[in-house]
Amino acid sequence: MDTQKILKHYCKYVYVAGAGNYWYDDTYTETVPYKVYTYVSFAIYTVMILLENMAALFGSFPDVEKNSAVMFAAIHDIVLYKMYTMLLSKGSIKELNREMAAVGASREEGRVMRRQRFKLKWGMVVYVVSVYLSLIAYGVESFRRMYQEGV
């Protein structure tokens, strides 16, 4: 698999997630229903983050839950900022993808590309597993506290 295919493959996932076409040509068309879906999903996410921030600021929680609410609000604000920055920088990202595909094509070797693909896949797997394991650990700890401490 070459650099262009790898980049295009991940641009497809970004498109399916609703963030738009980040590939340098119009392979993934942004139709009117797709744009409506993008705006609605980003609006819902923005409102959810706003409500989460209000809960962290004004909510009456025990100390542990208050700390968790503040932590998640801060993290989600950063994610929201990155999402909107990505939307505003779409042209630059498309140009960067075009340049990376062109530069990568001149430096591709079979062994190196296999190794890069292996590292990319396992990096993504480790990331996803670590996110879900931390989520599960948080849930287990919350249930433990609920049953043992009655919180």
Based on Cα principal axes, name the global outline.
extended
* Biggest β-sheet description: none
Rg from Cα: 20 Å
Helicity range of the residues?
A: over 70%
Number of beta strands: 0
Strand content is under 5%
Transmembrane segments: 36-58, 70-88, 120-140
Keywords: Membrane, Transmembrane, Transmembrane helix
Summarize the helices and strands and which ones pair or pack.
Blueprint: H1 3-16, H2 32-58, H3 63-88, H4 90-106, H5 110-149
Protein architecture, described:
- With 151 residues, this protein is mostly helical.
- It contains 5 helices and no strands.
- The relative contact order is 0.11.
- Helix content is 82%, strand content 0%.
- The chain has helices spanning 3-16, 32-58, 63-88, 90-106, 110-149.
- The chain starts with a helix and ends with a helix.
- The protein has 2 domains: 3-108, no CATH class; 109-151.
- The mean pLDDT is 88.
Give a short summary of the structure.
With 151 residues, this protein is mainly α. It has helices spanning 3-16, 32-58, 63-88, 90-106, 110-149.
Index terms:
0% strand, membrane, 151 residues, transmembrane helix, extended, 2 domains, mainly alpha, transmembrane
